[in-house]
Amino acid sequence: MARQKNDILQGTLALLVLRTLEARPRLHGYALTSHIQRVSDDLLRVEEGSLYPALHRMEQEGWLRSEWGITEKNREARFYSLTAAGKKQLREERESWKRLTKGVDRVLRHA
Amino acid sequence: MPWYDRLLGLLRRGRLPSEIEREISFHLAERTDDLVAQGMSRRDAMLEARRRFGSPSFPRQRTYRTSGVVWLESVLADLRYATRSLRRSPGFATVAIVSLGLGIGANTAIFSLYNALVLRALPVSNPQELVQVTFGDGRTNLTNPLWEELREQQDVLTGVFAFGRASFNLTDGGEVRYASGHWVSGGFFPVLGVRPMLGRLLVNSDDYRGCPAVAVVSYGFWQREFGGAAEGVGGSLLLNGSPFTVVGVVDPAFSGLDVGTATDVYAPICTWPIVYPGSDRLDNRSAWFLKAMGRPARGLSADQAGARLATLSSGIFGATVPQDWNAEGQARYREYTLAVRAAPNGVSQLREQYRTALLVLLAVVGIVLLIACGNVANLLLARATRRQHEVAIRRAIGSGRGRLVRLLVTESLLLSLVSAIVAIGFARWASAFLVRMLSTGGDMWLNLNLDAKVLGFTMAVATLTGLLFGLAPAWRATGVAPQAALRTAGREAADRRGRFAIGKVLVIGQVAMSLSLVVGAGLLIGTLTRLHALDPGFNRDGVLIVSVNTRNVGYSREESRLTNLGLLARLRALGGVRSASAAVIIPISGSSWNNDVEVDGYQPTDRQDALVWFNTMSDGYFTTLQTPLLAGRDFDSRDAPGSVQVAVINETMARRFFAEPRPLGRLFRVVPISGEGETYEVIGVVTDTKYGSIGEATLPIAYFPLSQTGFEGSSLQFLIRTDGAPTALIPAVASLIGEVHPRISVRFSTLEDVVAASLTRPRVLAVLSGFFGGVALLLATIGLYGTLSYRVTSRRNEIGVRLALGAARTRVLGMVLGEVGRLALAGIAIGVIGALASTRLLSTFLFGVKATDPLTLALSATVLAVVAVVAGALPAWRAARLDPVETLRGE
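YS: structure for the whole thing
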């Protein structure tokens, strides 16, 4: 299955969303999907069905806040931005990601 | 998530899905646009967008759950499930609900009594403001002159009033019928803010010296005596033979300030001389019959009001010094101070008597409920084992353990809440029964209506109970690995040992707790039997007491004397009367009279040591009560008004004051607080008798002859000894007295009843603790039996194999009984420690037995051991009788 390699590793979706919103505040869900895909050169593809539950969960955790607004195409969309708690969370997740990759990398090199 | 978010979630329930739908449809629209831009047809693009998105309903469900709506919804679903599953096992549900209902109900019953007596505020406006005026040392009774002085001089209470307990005879001659009442000052109703239901209540203008005879009655009294007719108001009422005009009926919610008594008649204090003609009570500075209450002035706390009142004390007491007291007494009187204390729930003798006793009973029924919980938990454990298959399937298809525990606990909570409803019904009956048990007269009354406190208590107990018996079984039931449970294909899963372990803990706890209760019951029953068996120094059986009051007849003193003497002679001549005597005080009845006594050569170490208790009687008193005369003589015709004043004393007085057992011919002086002291010569010594209560330390008593102190009193008690039942004499005595004069009031009782009434509290405690101790034993027996039966059933195969291999049946019997023995011993050991730690709380209720009485402890432990053997016998016998072939074939 070719799509498998594009799947986002479980648990990293939050990291990607937080980082994206740090760089670009006020994005709607669709823009988030396309942005992640574009920035990763199509290496990563967000599973759209699981994006929205994740966004809602993160909003309930207090990492995100959202509001309804109008897009340039005059469509109603929900825009998400990062909260202070979200920034803190991003720092933590970024740290743990670095640790993980460093660890995995070492194992691959020296094992 | 906090609960309010959940609540908001529920409110948002209509909105939330549409928000998510809007978000998703936006996403799909954007995707479609992009795909169209890449060259797809709009129709294909829409389909492709949906396909990429995946199942749109899936995220909606996920999001939905986090909102908490699902939480509440699933609680309702659990409730539906619980109802269904309980309905499917009606036997289990009935047993659980009935036993819990009775357990919770007993708690509710005792609590509602405690609530009515101790917690419930008076049904008046702003009861929390009410304070009672007391002495600095806590005494509460005032004289009328003191009350009037307090009313005039104080400036810290905006409303102040006085009231006193009253008892009015409603009949005009013949057998008496009493109504409980209050003497009230004019401020009583206005300050309390009580409203009339009919007519008017008493006000300040009703309360002045020489006031007319008006009274207010309770709603219940108005119903009973006037048939609830409006004409009752303005009608006439006879109080101790004097006609009073009824001016109003009190609001039905109000029943006086004496909690525990139904107060039926309210008369102004100033009508005392009308009810008791010739009495100087209103000016008597030594007649303590009133209590004062009020509300502190605006802005003053109770403490501030008390402090201010204390500074006014010397003026108030200085103006009311009893002139006839001796110098020492007057000096003490001037030193008295006043204080206040909060009195939001009135005053109550009953409360002082039973407050702690009710707490003890509450603890007892609490423990009984815990034991009952143990049994229900055991039932639930058994049920959980049967349901393991169902639980396994639920877990296999993804139910979390917490979720399943919640499902099962919901079932327990449902059980306990339904039990709470049963409990409230049972408690209404049980608390009324308790009140009847406590009641010695006819006028005891408590407001046992359900209120927020009782309801809250019941619900709290029920919820706690549900969690208590539900959590452990639910936790265990859901702890089995699904594969293991499923593999046994619907039969019980393998780990019976674990279930037995919880069962063991439960049973040991039950045995321990029932032992504590049995020990407590043993101590209280021991107290009662000791009090009963105690020789009070007189024979209480076969004595009729005839209380005669000739006040309404209007005799002169000489007529009164002749009538009393004539009555005594005629009673003695009555058929069936062995002996008769007249006396002023009946022992153990609560009346008392004492004073300081001086004897040459005796130096009392403190004031208490100089006190002697008195009674006055005719000749034949000691014969009638069968109190042995140890030396000297009874009163006789020599003891006339002019001759040497004589007295008979008891052994304790002889020893304490004269330091010799038979001080015949020696003298003592009574030193009253007022008036001249009199000197008396000892002419006889009698055995010690109890004076005020059966359990008291024996008091020194001196008896004086009526023939010298005077038979002129309008109120006298006749004691009649008969060989048959004393009450059989009543008709003859009543008609005899009626012949003397129809307006003589008379009341009958027996000495046995008087003594029994004084033992109400120990009797109530003994009976109830005995009853609940029995219930606890029964519950523990059931618990033991159930656990062991289960144990034997689950070991069927093992026992079968043992038997097949040639084990003796007695060995099997011993094995099971050994298990019972170990459980019981563990429980008994813990129970003994618990009992030693807790029975100390009972010490104020014990008489003649220590809280740590080893005999009671040993007996109780034996009872528990016997119960354990009885409970274990049937399962053990069944195990020994197993047919090995049968059990092995079943495998």
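YS: worth flagging: Residues 10-15, 56-62, 489-494 of chain B have pLDDT under 50 and may be disordered.
IM: good catch. Also Chain B has four domains: 3-67, 127-344, 353-532+760-890, 543-723.
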